[in-house]
């Protein structure tokens, strides 16, 4: 059975992202990177595809900029990459889920779908769960370790806000994986060469036989946040005790203690 | 116009952050139904009433005692289909996000997650949500259908408890039987007594510099830097955390070096926090760290390098070695706070 992972490109985390005069988000000429959370899902899908005796397939939903993330994935060693043309608004997660589920069905014989925990730009933290519901598959989020996968079931460790759980779940399933589940490999030189020559097939909603739902959410506007006016005050004093006492006075005045 | 609020519970108690969702709901409507699933559901519904619920639906069934997505989503979706609320709210915890996303997909409705402001204009729901690690503010709307929204923790202020308020909870049956639930919890290791980073009013974080512990590592310690850093978290930062009743955090450099588990990481690829007070110790203040903590109400930086970028973000700075300053600060605080 095959393993499918979804990824896309995001602006580099150090990029200066801002809203320009026409209201669009720009990050100058900073590079895009594969969504950092997805390095773990990509690595995990390479390993798990071998366990399940299938291919590791990666899919991006959206515009051409996401080919970068797909090429990075191929360079890491994923077997196949596809891009699905989608409505421009990535915050409308329902449309994504319908397309993602249809892509999984088209790939066929898929046992496991792996997502990264979150996208670092818009971070809806909805895409994975909604895809699972549209597939009608089991959903297991925040997986920190896969203990076993195969024979129709999955056993994992997952982190919740209250501690660590071990759960078993039936396959096929959708999971999200956390940082630290593995040590993502770097793309090899040969991998990068192969990936740079690859052409990435593009599927439309029609190719997938998917009926796109109407828009459920709307983007009204992007804005730059108000500049944070911080006046830094360095606490001076002749001794540690004096500095500590002064700092505590300030914190009491500010009513944060 | 009615709002359905999912009240998160754990081991028979209400997650206190659910009060924020009740307050946000009352900001939108005077008809607020609390949906409480799990152990003690009726008692928790009574508590929800004191914080703003005007009605409650409860299901205290063994299949729902531990949160699992499938049985919870099946029931929430059924309630949404039957009650047709205008808005469904929860706090954007891990469970809140996945549950509302799943249910929104089940009914083909829109969801906005992790929002910090919410208004209703007629039938249109408008929300504000930070994006790109807080570098951008996005204004979003849902204009038709049921509107699902998760709220960023600590973005909405709970109402004061009204001891006179009460509801008569309506008991409902679960949708899935145990045999129909595809996930079984085999084991659970609780992290006890710890204040969660998401709820904490005060956070003290340590960075890579915590390895510069003047204490000598014992000969059999293995990696000396890891020993020193762990000792620094346990014997220097933790006492400050305990004195303040806060939570402990860390930078990614500290996590990557193996000084502290990933759950403590604050930043773009860790937790996004917004406490009243954030104390950064031996953290330089890289942009990715800032992404997770810049919304803190007040930031204090303790760093021996007066040029560290964290001082640009901090309201108060102390240019000192944390190993010299933090123990003194903790001792002074104990005196002043009478602990
Ligand atoms: C894709 C991506 C995602 C990332 N995500 C995150 C994230 O989520 N969170 C995060 O934190 N980082 C993240 N980073 C890493 C980030 O870029 C920085 O490398 C990291 O935050 C640095 O951690 P630090 O401040 O502890 O270490 P350093 O930058 O090494 O700073 C250590 C500081 O400690 C001070 N110091 C040393 N000894 C002492 C002492 N005894 N007393 C007082 N001060 C002392 C030094 O002066 C220095 O300022 C990410 C990076 C990338 C590329
Ligand atoms: N348009 C997309 N195409 C492929 N993967 C996506 C897309 N949007 C989100 N994802 C992935 O879904 C996961 C969760 O993202 P999010 O729900 O946006 O927080 C991450 O692994 C993302 O890379």
Please describe the structure with a list of short key phrases separated by commas or semicolons.
heterodimer; A: 257 residues; alpha/beta; Rossmann fold; nine-stranded mixed beta sheet; two-stranded antiparallel sheet; 15 strands; B: 339 residues; 2 domains; seven-stranded parallel beta sheet; binds flavin-adenine dinucleotide; binds adenosine monophosphate
Question: How would you describe the overall organization of this protein?
Answer:
The complex is a heterodimer of chains A (257) and B (339). Chain A has helices at 38-52, 67-76, 93-107, 127-135, 189-197, 240-253, and strands at residues 2-6, 9-11, 18-19, 25-26, 32-34, 56-61, 80-84, 110-116, 138-150, 153-160, 163-170, 173-177, 202-203, 218-223, 233-234. Chain A is of the alpha/beta class. The longest helix of chain A is centred in the first third of the chain and has 15 residues, at 38-52. Chain A is globular and about 70 Å long. The model of chain A has no long low-confidence stretch (mean pLDDT 95). Chain B has 339 residues and is an alpha/beta fold. Chain B has 2 domains: 3-180, HUPs (Rossmann fold), CATH 3.40.50; 202-337, TPP-binding domain (Rossmann fold), CATH 3.40.50.1220. Chain B has helices at 18-28, 41-50, 69-83, 94-106, 224-244, 252-256, 287-293, 310-313, 322-336, and strands at residues 3-7, 9-10, 13-14, 32-37, 55-59, 87-91, 110-115, 117-121, 124-131, 136-142, 147-151, 170-171, 183-190, 202-206, 247-250, 277-281, 298-302, 316-318. In chain B, the strands form 4 sheets. In chain B, strands 7-11-6-1-4-5-12 form a 7-stranded parallel beta sheet, with helices on both faces. A 5-stranded parallel beta sheet of chain B has the order 15-14-16-17-18. The chains are: A alpha/beta (257), B alpha/beta (339). Bound molecules: flavin-adenine dinucleotide and adenosine monophosphate. Adenosine monophosphate binds next to helix 1, strand 6, strand 8 and helix 4 of chain A.
């Amino acid at each position: 059975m095959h393993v499918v992972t979804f990824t896309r490109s995001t602006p580099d985390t150090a990029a200066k992202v801002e809203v320009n005069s026409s209201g669009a988000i720009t990050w100058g000429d900073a590079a895009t990177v594969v969504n950092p959370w997805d390095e773990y899902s990509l690595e995990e899908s390479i390993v798990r595809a071998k366990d399940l005796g299938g291919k590791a397939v990666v899919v991006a939903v959206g515009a051409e900029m996401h080919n970068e993330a797909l090429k990075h994935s191929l360079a890491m060693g994923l077997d196949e990459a596809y891009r699905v043309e989608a409505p421009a608004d990535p915050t409308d997660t329902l449309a994504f889920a319908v397309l993602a589920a249809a892509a999984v069905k088209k790939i066929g014989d898929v046992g496991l779908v792996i997502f990264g925990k979150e996208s670092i730009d818009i971070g809806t933290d909805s895409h994975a769960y909604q895809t699972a519901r549209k597939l009608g598959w089991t959903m297991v989020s925040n997986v920190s370790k896969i203990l076993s996968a195969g024979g129709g079931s999955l056993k994992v460790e997952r982190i919740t806000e209250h501690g660590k759980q071990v759960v078993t779940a039936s396959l096929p399933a959708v999971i999200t994986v956390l940082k630290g589940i593995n040590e993502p490999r770097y793309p090899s030189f040969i991998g990068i060469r192969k990936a740079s020559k690859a052409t990435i097939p593009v599927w439309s909603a029609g190719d997938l036989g998917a009926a796109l739902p109407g828009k459920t959410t709307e983007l009204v506007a992007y804005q730059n946040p108000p500049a944070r006016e911080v006046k830094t005050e360095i606490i001076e004093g002749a001794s540690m005790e004096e500095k500590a006492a002064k700092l505590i006075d300030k914190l009491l005045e500010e009513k944060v203690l | 116009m009615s709002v359905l609020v999912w009240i998160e519970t754990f081991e028979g108690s209400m997650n206190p952050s659910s009060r924020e969702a009740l307050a946000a709901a009352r900001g939108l409507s005077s008809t607020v139904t609390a949906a409480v699933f799990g152990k003690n559901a009726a008692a928790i519904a009574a508590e929800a009433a004191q914080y703003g619920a005007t009605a409650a639906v409860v299901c205290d069934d063994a299949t729902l005692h531990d949160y699992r997505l499938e049985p919870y989503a099946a029931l929430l979706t059924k309630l949404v289909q039957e009650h047709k609320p205008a808005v469904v709210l929860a706090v954007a915890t891990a469970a809140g996000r996945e549950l509302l996303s799943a249910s929104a997909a089940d009914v083909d409705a829109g969801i906005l997650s992790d929002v910090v402001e919410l208004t209703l204009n007629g039938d249109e729901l408008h929300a504000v949500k930070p994006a790109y690690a807080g570098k951008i503010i996005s204004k979003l709307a849902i204009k038709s259908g049921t509107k699902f929204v998760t709220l960023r923790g600590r973005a909405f202020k709970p109402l004061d408890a009204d001891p006179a308020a009460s509801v008569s909870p309506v008991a409902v049956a679960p949708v899935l039987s145990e045999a129909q639930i595809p996930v079984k919890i085999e084991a659970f290791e609780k992290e006890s007594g710890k204040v969660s980073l998401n709820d904490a009013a005060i956070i003290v974080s340590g960075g890579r510099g915590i390895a510069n512990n003047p204490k000598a590592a014992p000969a059999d310690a293995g990696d000396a830097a890891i020993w020193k850093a762990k000792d620094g978290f346990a014997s220097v930062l933790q006492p400050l955390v305990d004195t303040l009743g806060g939570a402990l955090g860390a930078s990614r450099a500290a996590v990557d070096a193996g000084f502290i588990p990933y759950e403590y990481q604050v930043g773009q690829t860790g937790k996004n926090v917004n406490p009243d007070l954030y104390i950064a110790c031996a953290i330089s203040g890289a942009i990715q760290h800032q992404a997770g903590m810049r919304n803190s109400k007040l930031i204090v930086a303790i760093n021996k390098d007066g040029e560290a970028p964290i001082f640009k973000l901090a309201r108060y700075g102390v240019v000192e070695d944390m190993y010299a300053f933090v123990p003194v600060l903790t001792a002074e605080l104990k005196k002043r706070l009478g602990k």
